[in-house]
Amino acid sequence: MIPMQTKIYEMITLADLFSLANALCGILSVIVLLQGQTQLSAQLLLLAVIFDSVDGYIARNFGSNDINHVVFGETIDSLADVVSFAVAPSIILYIISGVNYIIIPVILIVLCGILRLTRYNASLNNYNQPVHTFVGLPIPVVSFTLAALILADYINMILLFILMIIISILMVSNISYPKVKEKRMLLVVAIITLLCIIPYSNTILFKIPSYLLIVCALMYILAPLITILIKPDDLHNLQDKLSINSKSNSDTNDLFKR
Fold this sequence. Notes:
The chain has a two-stranded antiparallel sheet. Helix content is 69%, strand content 2%. It has one domain: Four Helix Bundle (Hemerythrin (Met), subunit A), CATH 1.20.120. By secondary structure, it is mostly helical.
């Protein structure tokens, strides 16, 4: 347990700064939307996803092994995720919708997001071995999907209503989702995401990466269904490619972290 007298700046690591940057992007995404900058708001959500995916890698490779620092870092990470992947997208969804019934997925995103992260943190102490799948849909998918739809100018309220409810339910489900560690796949998604957050990228040409992000998000959301439809031998080959069972990639980064 960390003593209350401990100085905050003595506990903060480089990875924690990235987690705080994640939270900052979430806060700013709401602020700029209130100023009428919808595209920038979506880009900040994607930037939050990037910071969240990087902080885990930094913590593993440059962080402290002290249990107090680990607990401190995990707590910051989860609180930042609540801000950027639950509260911020919920507020943004409510503001851009203009319809009253959207309050249902807005509430579900926040509540299911909190429950999902609480279960994740509570389960950390139960695993002595590396875990190669998530239980439930990772929470960054909320902001990742919403941002991609906004940047692609594909805002259909009925679609958003249904999709966000499905995502919320999947977050608290017991469905297994793969931890994508395949470096080439991560690189492709990273490049597409970076293209989407280029300032003032509002032409038709720059909407293409947004469409690709939507495809990536939907493929990941539907991943469990896809694995059911794939033959066992083909599924085993796919898992090898995704490095789900590969120990050699245990220190690489994940597309989504929790």
